[in-house]
Amino acid sequence: MVVLVALAAVARARSHRGEVTLDDAAHPPAMASGDEGRALLARFECNRCHDGTGLASVARERHCVRCHQEVHQGTFTPPVPAATLARWQQHIVHLREVPSLAALGSRLRSEWVEAYLLAPHALRPELGATMPRLALNTHDARTLARWLTEGPRVRASVTGNGARGRTRYGALGCGTCHQFSGASAPAAAPAPLSLTPDEFARARSLAPDLRSTRDRWIPSAVAAHLMNPRATVPDGVMPSFGLSAGDAADLAIFVLTTPLAPLATRHVPPRPARLARPVRWSEVESRVLRRTCWHCHSEPDFARGEGGVGNVGGFGFAPRGVNLASYEGLYAGVLSPTGERESLLRPGPDGVAPLVRVLLARQAEEAGARVEGVRGMPLGLPALAPDEIALVDTWIAQGARVDGE
Ligand code: HEC
Ligand code: HEC
Ligand code: HEC
Ligand code: HEC
User: Fold this and answer.
1) Ligand nearest to the backbone CA of 205
2) Atom of ligand 1 nearest to the CA of 100
3) pLDDT digit string (tens) for 356-372?
């Protein structure tokens, strides 16, 4: 899919004496009913992570990103003991920044958004969290994509010189925030910007790898973005460089057409070997379950009433009743689609317990190979390290006992 889109972009390019022109594609047909798009955004609760969906904002108690930001900034209310706050601040690394979906139609291609929602992959190398793999079908994805990118758009084009753009790219320090995998980009000079270290770190974490920009963006919008980033990403954080139209166009042509070397194929890692030493429940609990899984799989009274989407449902998922906040909760297993409780600890015919299977599936998803019928965990977060997976696997193989039994 991505390859086809890239080829289409090349086919629309014209070049003349080092100047390349890229034409915008036609706007996809308007949606039959915008109400359906809005209803889907609400059903999948996209606004629990993203701003700019056009839906009313959700309460802090349910907003994954806002609450994490309040904890990090120390403005969380009601006040909690300083030691608790410090521990929380140290623990929360994910979902503190998420790109806004405001005015997506001014920049992203509808076809790309549709394909991405069905098969999300990492775009921002420093963000850690990725867009979660939700239970969307192709109709949902198309409707959401059309709705999010809807709006008036003038078909236009951009003409510039990629070699000049490449030189500007190095001189302006674009690479101090952006990775550009597979491109031959010059070494980055310091960017001529006055940002505080915090502002800089935030901008870096939200800066996409420019490798996929040619698949994602409407060509003329890249030049518009470089002249005035707020016009295309109204609540974005890329600073303005005050570029002339000519410089912006040269940079856009460089970003959109410079040759890209193929990336090394990512292989699914081998299953981590079990540990030779005894593993205690308390270690599994503190290093894995409480650390990473707990917040989506917790007691319904934690954090002011939420039980977590993997327990009570959310993001369009039915309640699956997986409570990883205690041994008893884990032992109680998962609700099957037919409403029966199934064990997460009993190994299947392949010798792998369901609790371990979801962890291995996340490793596979990261390598671009999703496992049929298994959603990788932690959902939308980096796979656990091999030694953490080995820890869970070993504990189960040793009898999945609580400490002292
Ligand atoms: C758990 C939080 C979460 C939820 C819920 C969520 N997203 Fe995302 N989404 C993310 C994160 C994190 C990223 C950035 C990923 C990256 O850059 O690799 C993202 C990226 C995106 C992007 C790409 C935007 C860009 O500028 O690159 C789109 C489009 C998107 N999400 C749409 C949706 C839609 C539509 C929904 C609801 C159906 C949704 N998201 C639900 C976390 C979430
Ligand atoms: C009311 C505040 C609040 C809300 C809402 C909230 N969180 Fe958290 N989250 C926290 C706190 C506090 C921690 C740290 C807890 C600890 O480690 O003791 C945390 C930790 C986490 C962690 C583990 C640390 C990390 O960065 O990997 C994940 C994952 C997580 N939350 C995901 C979510 C998701 C997904 C949502 C939305 C469905 C959400 N949270 C909503 C307060 C919140
Ligand atoms: C201080 C960090 C920073 C610097 C320096 C920076 N950018 Fe960005 N850039 C961002 C962020 C963050 C975004 C995401 C949109 C936003 O939040 O404004 C972005 C978005 C983009 C995009 C859209 C990419 C996509 O796939 O969504 C392009 C193209 C781009 N920048 C090009 C450049 C160029 C060219 C330069 C040098 C002139 C540059 N950037 C310098 C932070 C930066
Ligand atoms: C961002 C939220 C989130 C995080 C973090 C998360 N989960 Fe989940 N988990 C979910 C959701 C949502 C479901 C239900 C998915 C479905 O029904 O397809 C789920 C389902 C599960 C299931 C049941 C799978 C099945 O279909 O039988 C297991 C097991 C599980 N999670 C384990 C974990 C473990 C272990 C971790 C930590 C390493 C973790 N989860 C972290 C959201 C999360």
Assistant:
1) 3
2) 26
3) 999 999 999 999 999 99
